[in-house]
Design goal:
97 residues; mainly alpha; flat
């Protein structure tokens, strides 16, 4: 019971990440007008660029430190969802929605 105050924020954060992942997938599948497609395209492109750069940094770090290349898929998926959401919100504000 003493650790309950630590467990509750973690569970809430986990639920938030699951919701972000779901909303990312739904926004990619949802059809819309040209402006909405442009915003999703730009957010997707920016997210892919950031994710590619983080993969390159992980590879370089692994080679320099002579470590095995291990990638935690949960961390990468969460990072992707957060990055996509932030960039989509930015482009929605920039192009108006």
């Amino acid at each position: 019971m003493e650790n309950l105050h630590i467990l509750i924020p973690f569970v809430l954060f986990l639920i938030l990440l699951i919701l972000l992942d779901g909303s990312m997938i739904l926004s990619l599948l949802k059809q819309g007008d040209e402006r909405r497609q442009l915003m999703v395209w730009k957010a997707s492109t920016f997210t892919l660029l950031v994710l590619t750069l983080t993969f390159i940094c992980d590879i370089v770090r692994s080679i320099l430190h002579a470590e095995p290349m291990t990638i935690n898929p949960f961390v990468k998926l969460s990072t992707t969802a957060i990055m996509y959401t932030i960039s989509l919100l930015y482009f929605k504000k920039q192009y108006g929605d």
